[in-house]
Write a structure and sequence with these properties.
By secondary structure, this protein is mostly helical. Helix content is 70%, strand content 0%. InterPro entries: COQ9_C.
Length: 221
């Protein structure tokens, strides 16, 4: 994806705006059989795309019955599986700084794995369809919330919402970078570090000039 279409950026902007509501979508259905089927499909989705035909070919002739809502449900469930994989990997972190825990979670969620990245590119084509956009917004809210959970943040009320909005915008820019150039791990890490530094700098300016909504530690503490 050397040139990212404007439609993708617009879709991301709408997904970030959804975070302002502060309401978590209903959890996805989860079970070991669905997860196994998702992993098999994700392994080939970058080359073959996300489709019920491909799902049946790699996970068995009845695998489509696991996802009665069709291919949009498949991609949404895969996003949820990636969130859970990230959360599991973050369970044993001993990093004391919130900003570094957020950094770790983002980099685990968007690894420099070409297979994962190509699968995500093809998955975005499903999410940007008319049927897929609501599912993408739900997935985006879940992922941003999962990153905060992984970072062990326990904020509530307005702080809960403002933190997720801030992270949603940051994660959107990182996600775009990862889709186009994410195979360069050093470049991706440097980009995440710059974005976190930007958030910290803006937070300090708001605190200095009386902006009550965002404290410097909102994401990059």
């Amino acid at each position: 994806m050397s040139a990212l279409p404007g439609k993708l950026e617009q879709t991301l902007s709408l997904a970030v705006a959804t975070l302002a509501v502060g309401v978590m979508p209903t959890p996805m259905e989860r079970d070991a059989e669905r997860d196994q089927a998702l992993r098999k499909l994700a392994a080939v989705a970058g080359e073959c795309g996300w489709s019920m035909h491909t799902l049946r070919s790699v996970a068995g002739p009845n695998a489509d019955l696991l996802f009665p809502a069709g291919v949009v449900e498949v991609v949404e469930a895969w996003s949820d599986l990636c969130d859970r994989t990230m959360l599991e990997a973050m369970q044993d972190t001993f990093e004391p700084r919130l900003s570094q825990r957020v950094r770790q979670a983002i980099l685990l969620r968007l690894p420099p794995d070409e297979q994962r990245r190509l699968a995500a590119q093809r998955g975005m084509a499903v999410f940007m369809s008319i049927r897929g956009q609501k599912a993408f917004r739900r997935s985006w809210v879940r992922t941003v919330n999962a990153i905060w959970q992984a970072a062990q943040d326990d904020s509530t009320g307005l702080t809960y919402v403002s933190k997720r909005l801030t992270l949603g915008g940051l994660y959107a820019s990182v996600f775009l970078y990862w889709l186009s150039r994410g195979s360069d791990s050093a470049g991706l890490e440097a980009f995440v570090d710059r974005r976190l530094a930007d958030v910290l700098r803006i937070g300090r300016l708001k605190a200095r000039f009386g902006g009550a909504a965002a404290k410097p530690e909102s994401v990059a503490g």
